[in-house]
Specification:
21 strands; homodimer; succinyl-diaminopimelate desuccinylase activity (chains A, B); six-stranded mixed β-sheet; 34% helix; 458 residues
Chain lengths: 458, 458
């Protein structure tokens, strides 16, 4: 690996440029901005790096960029990433423009640099470095880069079903990855699922002078009452049946949770907070973080929200909610439960519009991809890797991997303060360079797992 | 009056131009736009119409434009109006730009044309017409035009105290006035009070990826729970003590309420609604509208409110609330009760910022100003005037009138679908011309009340 690592070091400026050029493209799927440019950029990069043109596999939404690189064994490792990013607002809180990547204090700042363009480019850079030093890839590689992860991967389940054979692999490196505050690499074995909905309440056909509020129904009050009916102040989600199907936590899960490290003090400090929700700490805090579902309000808006006073009775009110789900929960069933709950509580006229629906996923810790990843993380880090049974985040892992029998796990170039989905998103330059080396090492380590153990992992 | 009315008819284009020119000025106090231009316009109009320059009485905010015209008796009639208007948003719902007055289908459309530039200019036009036909004013006139009504007249109580003598009168024509759907003129004897507050909840020091929602407190959930604690689904305001000081409804009030007409079907039709709040109708509906306080959400905002999906845990949440108060309720006391209620329910960290605080006011129906107004409304309308004990709207009437012993009442050029505070605000051209005539007639009728009845009304 030394030769490859040295090559990566010598070419760090090139690989940083690959990344910052990519991050300069505002590929916000939610707003249909820069998506074609992002695909074009990937086309050019594959041409430059590997002299191939990736396929653009069409979906009902943005295409999946797909490429295969042949290796010497018949084993296949796949990389799942996405070329879309979150919107950049609140724009005014960015220190430098979100889509003008800026390197300062050893960090690269840009929307998407951590989530997930840094990982996507690091993987291509690793493959490039392996080939450039004259090594043959030990396994086949499949790159699966979608364009709708940040809007809920609505078309990916259909894609995964249609292209099940084409995208099949013996292990998948999932899109994200972070380091803890102490520098330890997180190895993540799964994701939470998600149901993302927009609720809308309507009142009169126009905004009214608020003097009318005594006799005209208010859609924003209705929405407030409806939201209040969903979760109580003890964070209990009140939708009947919501918790029923959750898979019990196994002894192995619980053991992993005990070993999983969450730096409470560092996290609170960084966020300017004095305590976690419900004053939780220790094992119970970790348990809620990793193993429990959420009901979060991502946004709410109604009426006059500008400066000063406006006395108005708004004509409509909207809220965006995300439910993070855990293994066993079916987003379709949760949606039906939500509708039923609203109807039963007098909110029949509040509409629900679904924008994302994904199941949770977890890979078992004895799979080749997991063991290879842990081995690499141990080689490259001076801290013991932090193994997370599933991250609290979401992605279409179930649909793309577990449902097709593909074990999946994840590490990557982000850090504990990467500010994903928030202003001033960033990664450390050194984590990025190290991340490239770790992916190169993982390709060989993954291959070794099969040589070592025969067909145990097949 | 015939000569004056004919003069008004002959000069209708002039008086319409006075109004549309004034409405072209975006005097939005909440945004400090066009306020100086509005004052300058009034200066020029007083110069054109009466060859006088009004005083600009300074306050801590925008000045009060004040002018006196001498009449032949020692009685004084005052006009209270405001030259500021509401913000124009939602801009996209206006058929023509809010500050480019447009006359179509017999209506003048512009922000502020009904609330309250139409009335302000109609009053000046009436005085102009009286003088132009060679008549002497029968009473002294005082014009009191403030610039902060739409932002809660925060500086008017201090102003009224300071200039109590200067602004004293025997009766005040209040700023607003409307016609019902059947064309009847509303004569209003009072206003509700108001407490307008902005509530703010804060969470982490930055927006976070919503995966964090399992363990980090959400300010928007906190705000939803806090709002929910303020009012239940039966419209009962839950703040302890809120209803305690309300003055009981007298037999006279109730009798007036019985005579007050609210066209339920027309109102519902116009608003595209099937029923009023709580399915109320008839006397109970009118009672709630006129005599009961409200707690309304004027606006709420937190997190991502754009198109599509963004999975974010917002770092703050804000709501704007107006409480419309009724006689007996003290906004300062309500504010203290609100603070105490939030504290007692676990919302100590939700901040309250007050932007408006006004008491309710009601004038007795046997005052000269009321009798004169009813007499004029009967002369000019073919429908019996609709007498409203107090309107459900708000203004600084208590501070400017009742607190100083000045009876006050109101009629004006608006209509039942004037869309005050809403897109496509308008008045009927004919109501405007008729309104000018009615103000001219009122000046004489008000004087007559004192001739007729000696000092009864003094």
């Amino acid at each position: 690996m030394e030769k490859i690592d040295q090559f990566i070091e010598r070419n760090r400026d090139l690989y940083i440029k690959w990344l910052t050029d990519f991050c300069g493209i505002p590929s916000v799927a939610a707003q249909n901005r820069g998506m074609e440019d992002a695909v074009k950029y990937l086309d050019e990069l594959f041409d430059t790096a590997f002299s191939i043109e990736p396929e653009k596999l069409q979906t009902s939404g943005f295409p999946v960029v797909f490429a295969e690189l042949k290796g010497k064994s018949d084993r296949t490792l796949s990389f799942y990433n996405h070329y879309d990013v979150q919107p950049e607002d609140p724009v005014e809180l960015w220190e430098t423009p979100a889509f003008e990547p800026d390197i300062r204090n050893g960090k690269i700042f840009a929307r998407g640099v951590a989530d997930n363009k840094g990982n996507l480019i690091a993987r291509l850079a690793a493959l490039h470095a392996i080939q450039e030093v004259g090594e043959e890839l030990p396994v086949n590689i499949k790159c699966i880069f979608e364009g709708e992860e940040e809007i809920g991967s609505l078309n990916l389940p259909e894609f995964a079903e249609k292209y099940a054979e084409k995208i099949h692999s013996d292990g998948c490196v999932w899109e994200f990855g972070y380091r803890d505050a102490d520098g330890a690499t997180q190895v993540s074995l799964g994701v939470k699922g998600m149901l993302y909905v927009e609720l809308q309440a309507k009142g009169a056909n126009t905004d009214l002078h608020s003097a009318q509020a005594a006799i005209i129904e208010s859609p924003v009050w209705k929405l407030v009452w409806a939201l209040n009916s969903l979760k109580d102040q003890n964070e209990k989600i009140l939708i009947p049946g919501f918790y029923d199907d959750i898979e019990p936590i196994t002894a192995l899960d619980d053991e992993m949770l005990s070993r999983y490290r969450l730096d409470e003090k560092e996290t609170l400090n960084k966020l300017g907070l004095e305590h976690f929700v419900l004053n939780l700490e220790g094992h119970r805090l970790k348990e809620k973080h990793i193993f429990e579902p959420t009901c979060n309000i991502c946004g709410i808006v109604s009426g006059y929200t500008g400066e000063g006073t406006k006395t108005v009775l708004p004509s409509e009110a909207k809220a965006k909610l995300d439910f993070r789900l855990v293994p066993g929960q079916d987003p379709e069933k949760v949606l039906a439960q939500l509708r039923q709950h609203l109807d039963a509580n007098g909110f029949k006229d509040i509409s629900i519009h679904v924008t994302s629906s994904e199941r949770a996923a977890r890979t078992k810790p004895d799979e080749a991809i997991v063991e290879a990843m842990i081995a690499v993380a141990e080689q490259y880090g001076d801290k013991k890797p932090n193994i997370v049974p599933n991250t609290p985040g979401t992605g279409p892992m179930y649909e793309l991997c577990q449902a097709l029998g593909i074990p999946s796990a994840s590490f990557g170039v982000g850090n504990f303060e990467s500010n994903n989905h928030a202003p001033n998103e960033n990664i450390n330059v050194e984590d990025y360079i190290e991340g490239i080396k770790m992916i190169a090492a993982l390709v060989f380590e993954f291959s070794k797992q099969f040589e070592k153990e025969g067909s145990v992992h097949s």
